[in-house]
What does this fold into?
Amino acid sequence: MNSEMVLYRACITLQGGNQWCYRSVSALLKNLENKKIVIVSDTDLDGMPRIERSQVRNYLGNEFDIVIFDGMKPFSADNLGIILGTVKAGGTFILLLSDTCESSLWMRRFQQVIADFEHQYESFTMIRAGDGLPALTFPEQQKFSDSIYQTEDQQQAVTAILKVVYGHRRRPLVLSSDRGRGKSASLGIAAAQLINEGKKSIVVTAPSLAIAETVFEHARRLLPEAEVTRGRISVNDAKIQFVAPDALIESQLKADVLLVDEAAAIPASMLEDLLRLYSRLVFATTLHGYEGTGRGFSVRFQQILQQNTPNWHHYRMEMPIRWAANDPLEKFSFNALLLDAEPVADELIIDAQTELCSFEKCDRDQLLNDEQSLRELFGLMVLAHYRTRPSDLQMMLDREDVTVYAMRYKGHIVASAWLVKEGGLNDDLAVSIHAGQRRLKGHLLPQSLLAHVGITTAGALNYQRITRIAVHPAIQQRGIGDALLQQIHVVAVKNSVDIVGASFGVSSELLTFWSHSGFVPVRLGIHHGDVTGSHSVMLLQGTSPKGQVVIDESRKRFQQQWPYLLSTQFKQLDADLVISLSQLLALPEVVISQWDRQDIAAFSHAHRGYEFSQAALRLWMFSRICHPDFLQLTKQQQQLCVMTLFQQREWSDVAKRLAYTGKTQIITALREAVCLLL
It folds into this structure.
């Protein structure tokens, strides 16, 4: 077993003009044979294997001896984060940078980090145009033992996975680590062992099959007699197979164990569904990966696990497999891309109250010279939002249309909001967008109001869209987020902004937070979001008379369409969300005729069948769901009214979701709910 590796990865930075950098790379790589080399660039270089910038994500999990990263413009922080993890132990990372004067704050910080590492580590070398080139050396690779495990960590991880299968039910395992520790390999080794021990069905899921390839590769190595196709390994009547998360939830396929790779990149709502459907699960996730999602995932997902399976277990893998412990290049990736950024420690801000916090617009030049504040700010966003990537840091520091506000307590950042400027579209462009002939990059709020809601005057207004907002978890529910939004409103009014808005994956908790601060829902997206797995809701707040007119018109259209949408596009929308949105929409009063009242009364007293009273019940119930007295019904009764009268779901679906025996019991329960509301 390989318990310790001593081969550090080297980093060579070439800084100069394009042609000098490309010539230098050719000279460095001259006469190198039997090395796996690749360049990330949109420019061909001496026939070298090349990855286009747009394709880098597909190479997660690959390994190379030498990686050349073309950092000439445009520079992608996300691509850098991905490709750094493919350089194996003893390998070399060659970074090409322009020598032109940089106005980019992100690049200024990045180059300072490179300079710091050059002074600290012998494995980091900076070469500028005119300097001599070093000779590349590759130490002999350390031979692994015959053990199937490369570290003690990996053996412990596989043991923990097997315990999920052979131990008590409903005790899932969360397997976490930074990149390069062998999580996916551990899943593959465990899957193969289970097949050899007689298990018949191992299901693997992940955000994509490409991400799960490493699992199958390591399982295949231990099953030499298996029949192998992409995403499936068969041994007689046993199999390891990949199924996408949504397809898995739909099919409810039986399995001895479900292995979930890179769980942080799967919407939490889907993970919760998987927890409900399967009694033996393993969730593997990266803590400080290039997307920076793992830490925030851990905090949120632990709450879900605690509610559904309180006896869950956690194992964290520490020892790297792809490279040495304390590898300087890994430290560089964490530092340069703030992958390990954390919010301020709980104990330093636990006494924070709204009146003790100060509001500020962050000066990005000052942030560049205040590493602690920068880390607190970015760490807060990593913790609060799925898929906060290095490119978000790059955007925050460099884009002129982005504004960052923060709340501080005793000098520490405890809450923050990032806003982007939108709107100000000319009439011709607005007409084209309204007609569905044009689609711009960005400008989400005005484009959605034009193209989806149909407000022809929306394009010309000035918007501030809140793209990110976060309050430190240790001090939530104290009004600090509300105070932050109030201050943003004041600034928007002063700056002649017409509308402040946001669009995000909808949940009842978020609707409560935003509506409490004066934001109103004007649209619900038809499709599920890739990140959250939820429908996106758009909420707006007027900061000028013109803005308020657009919001009022948009809200009115949403109110009018809502009853129809519930029985069509939103037929499967969570009933609690339907109630939350309906309460906020305050649907117009409906005139209930005397005939309708008679039908409703007759139904409630069991004199008339449901089918003969359905139209009157639906009309009347829409007038009730907006009022506080609707919430006096039990949660089950509320959901029953939504599913039957508004969404018109199948009786079998309602019975299954609400634990009724069938239509007869559902009708009886509905009569009781109507009686209570009458």
